[in-house]
Amino acid sequence: MSETFVVVGGDAAGMSAASKAKRDAPALDVVVFEKGGYVSYSACGMPYYIEGTVEDLDELVAVTPEEFVDERGIDLRLYHEVLAVDPETRTVTVRGEDDTFEQSYDHLLLATGAAATTPPVDGTDLSCVFTLRSLDEAHAIRERLDGGPDETLDLDRDGQAVASFLTDRDPRRIGVVGAGYVGLEMADVLRARGCDVHLFQRSAHVLSGYDADVATVVEDHLRELGVTLHLGVSVTGLAADAGEVSAVETEEGSVPVDMVVVGTGVRPRTDLAVDAGVELGETGAIATDAYRRTNRPDVYAAGDCAEVHHVVADEPRYVPLALAANRHGRAVGRTVAGDPTVGGGVVGTAVTKVGDLEVARTGLTDAEDARSLGFDPVARTITAGSRASYYPGRAPITVRMVADRDSGKLLGAGMVGADVVAKRIDTVATALHAGMTVAEVERLDLAYAPPFSTVWDPVLTAAKVLAGALDE
Amino acid sequence: MSETFVVVGGDAAGMSAASKAKRDAPALDVVVFEKGGYVSYSACGMPYYIEGTVEDLDELVAVTPEEFVDERGIDLRLYHEVLAVDPETRTVTVRGEDDTFEQSYDHLLLATGAAATTPPVDGTDLSCVFTLRSLDEAHAIRERLDGGPDETLDLDRDGQAVASFLTDRDPRRIGVVGAGYVGLEMADVLRARGCDVHLFQRSAHVLSGYDADVATVVEDHLRELGVTLHLGVSVTGLAADAGEVSAVETEEGSVPVDMVVVGTGVRPRTDLAVDAGVELGETGAIATDAYRRTNRPDVYAAGDCAEVHHVVADEPRYVPLALAANRHGRAVGRTVAGDPTVGGGVVGTAVTKVGDLEVARTGLTDAEDARSLGFDPVARTITAGSRASYYPGRAPITVRMVADRDSGKLLGAGMVGADVVAKRIDTVATALHAGMTVAEVERLDLAYAPPFSTVWDPVLTAAKVLAGALDE
C-alpha cells in the first residue's frame, strides 16, 4: 500500500513540498488541505496588483489548482480546513465543504503560514480596514479604489465578505498603519494611484530592520513622492462613520481617512500545532531541526508558521519570507520522497521597492541585537555612485555595513538607492553565508564595467571604509 | 633623509599606489614617471566616448595631473619615459622632455601596463587602423567619425600623430577585428553611431572566455542590431588605398572598409622588467608574491604588466583588469608606507555591455582549462526570468554554471541577459572566493521582491539544476 503525505496549507511551502514529493515519488499519495480558495499565489505581488501594474489577479497565481490536480497528480482540496492533528493515530480531522472527516497520514507537513497582526486598538475590525494577507483582500482594496465591484473578476466567497462595503465613498485619503515592507509598498502604490497617503509609524523611523542612515533616505523619498509621514506616533484607535473607518486617531490628533491598510507585521499560525503537542521555539513559531522536523514523529513544519536557522546569529529566528518557504517546502518534499534534505539557513536577506528606490538588507544590522549575541558591532555608512561617474543612469547608493570588532567578521548590511541595489545585497548575503571577514569582502573580485559599476563597487567601498575603522 | 618611492607608469595601479603611499606616509617622496600625457584615465570608458554617450574626453580622467601634484603632493612627471632600472644601485634612468637623467629609489613599482596586440598580418600599421589602447586613439577615432578635427579638443602631441589622416573619407563601413570585450564594445558603439560594422573573429564564437551557450545569445543580439558577423574567419591582411586602410582581407574574400579597429587582446609591457632581471611567470607577465613583490629587492609590480593569483585555479594567471590594478596598486602603496598589505587574488570576474545585453563571467568556465587543473567539470545552462512573471521589465537571463563532479565545488559561470546580469555575477564571484559547493550556492538566501527577482533567482535555479546533475 502506498504512503500518504498530508500537507496543511496550500501556499509556498505547502505546494512546493507537495509538488516535489509527488515528482520524486510518484507512488506517494499527496493530499493538500487548503482552507481558502487559492493556492500557490504571490503574496509579494499583491501591492502591484493594487497599483494596477499587474492587471489581473490571476497573474499572481503561479500554478492553478487545476494544474496541481491534473498535471502534477496532487489531491488538492480547496475550502478544506484542518481542525486537529493527532500524532498518535497519525490522522488529521478536516472540515470539508459538506462534512467533517478524518484523514490518515504517514508524513505530515504543517504549512499554515502567518496571520496579519493588528494594533491592540479599537476599530481594526471596521469596514474598509485591510491587512493584505490574502488575494481576497487585495481584490477588495483594488475594487474599492476602482470605484465599485469589478464584474469581470470572479470573487470567491471570502472575497465577497471582505468586499461588502457599507458606503460607496471614493477612497481619496488613505491611512497606512505600520511602515514595514507591506506598509511602505502600500503607501507607494496608493500614492502612485493618486491617493493622499498618510503613513503612521510608532517608532522614529520607517523600516525597523534598518538603521536610520538607510531609513532616512527612504523617508526623504516618500516625502518627495507626496506621502505624509507620521513618525514616532502611536495610533490609539480607528474612528467610524456609518460603520466604515473614517479617521486614524493618534496621540497627536485625528487624521480623517477613507480607508486604512494595516501593515504592522505577522504572527505564525500555530494553534493547530500547539493543540497537537508540536513544540514552539522562543520566537513563538514552530521549532524544527535542519530537516524541518518538529518534535512529533513524521510531522514537519515549513514556511511562515515555523522558525528558520539564522546563519549569522547561529540560532533559530522568525523570518517569514518567500524564498525560505519555497526552499524548505521543497526540502521536505525530497525528504518525504526518500532523500533526506536539509532546508538550509537564512541570513535575513530582504528587499523592497519604494518609489524609485530599492531598499535591501541582510544579516545582523541592529547593534543591540548583535551585542546580545556576543558581538562588538562596528558600523560605517558610505554613499557612492552605482556606475562610472561619466556614465548615464548613475545614482547614489548608500551602504551601511556592520562587522564584529574583534574577529573582523561581517555581520550585515543595509543598502538603499535607485540603481541595482537588490542584487548588490546578494553579494553581502553570500559573504555572510561564507562567514567572511570585512577584509575578505574588500578583496572580492566583483564585476566592473562603466555602465554597471564603479571600479570599486559601493559594496567594496563600504567594506574598505569599515575595514579601515576596524584597524583604528 | 626621507625615502623615495618611484612609480613607473601613471595609470590605475601606478596612481593608486602613489596616492595611497603619499597619503599614509606624507614624508615619503613619491615620484611618478608617465611616458604619455595622461594619467589615471578610464580605458574602459573609451568606447562610450566614441559612441558619444560620454561627451568630453576629460570626463574619462578621474583625477587630473594638477590634482595629483597640487592636492596629493605627488611628483608626477608626464612625458617622462623610464629607459632602464638598475636594482643594484636602486636607480632608474629616465628620458624627460629635455634630457636623460637618473633617479634613485628606495621602493620601485613597475606599473607599465599592457600593449595592444595585433594579428601577424600586413597592414596593421596603416592609417585608420586603431587599437584603442590610449585616450589619443579614442580621440582620433571619434574625430574621424565626427568628420574631421575637433578644434574644441586639446590634442596632445601623441594624439596629433595618431590623428593625422591621409584622406577625409567618411568612415561608414568599419571592420572590427577580434570579438573580445574591446571588439564587442567597439562593434556595439560604432553600430549605435550608424556605422555598418563587420566583426571578424577567428574562432567559431565571440567572447572566447565564454561557452557557446552564452556567446550565441550575444551573437543573435549583434545580428539583430545590424552587425555583420564573420565568425570562424581568419583575417589574412589589411589592404590599403592611398595609404589608408581600405579592406579587411580574409581567407573567404575581401570586405571593403573605411576604418579598422583591432581588438585582439593585450600583452604585458615587460621589456623594462626583463632588462632589470625581474622574473616573468609562465604567462609572460611579471611574477610577484602576494605582496606584489618581484624577485628583485624593493621592486614591486602591479596592474596589467603583472600576473595575479587566480583563486579558483590556485595559480598565477594573466587577467589584466581594472579592479585588481587599482587594488594591487593601493596595496603596494600601503606596503611601501609601512603597512605590509596583500593584494588579494582574483576569480576572473568580467562584464561588458553589448547593445541591450549585459554579458558577464567569473571563475573557470572552460572545460579543458578546468581539466588541466585536475577538475572534472560538469556544466548546465538554464534560462530564467529576471523578475516575477507578472512584473514589467522581466527579461530572460541565461546562466551557464560549472562545477567539479567529485567535490561539488563551484568552478565558474557565464551569464547573459538584458536585466541586471552584471551584479548577479557578483554573487557567483563571491561564492568562488569562499570556495562554496554548488549545493551551498543553491541554499543562498538571496534577495527576492517581484520587481527585482523571481523567488528563486536565476543564479539559484542554475545551482539547483547543476546540483541535480551532480547527483546523477
TrEMBL record, chains A, B:
Annotated ranges, domain Pyridine nucleotide-disulphide oxidoreductase dimerisation: 351-454
Keywords noted in UniProt: FAD, Flavoprotein, Oxidoreductase, Redox-active center
Required co-factors: FAD
GO molecular function annotations of the record: oxidoreductase activity
Alphabetized Pfam families for the sequence: Pyr_redox_2 (PF07992), Pyr_redox_dim (PF02852)
Domain FAD/NAD(P)-binding: 5-324
Family of the protein in this entry: Belongs to the class-III pyridine nucleotide-disulfide oxidoreductase family.
Protein name as annotated: FAD-dependent oxidoreductase
Annotated source species: Halomarina rubra
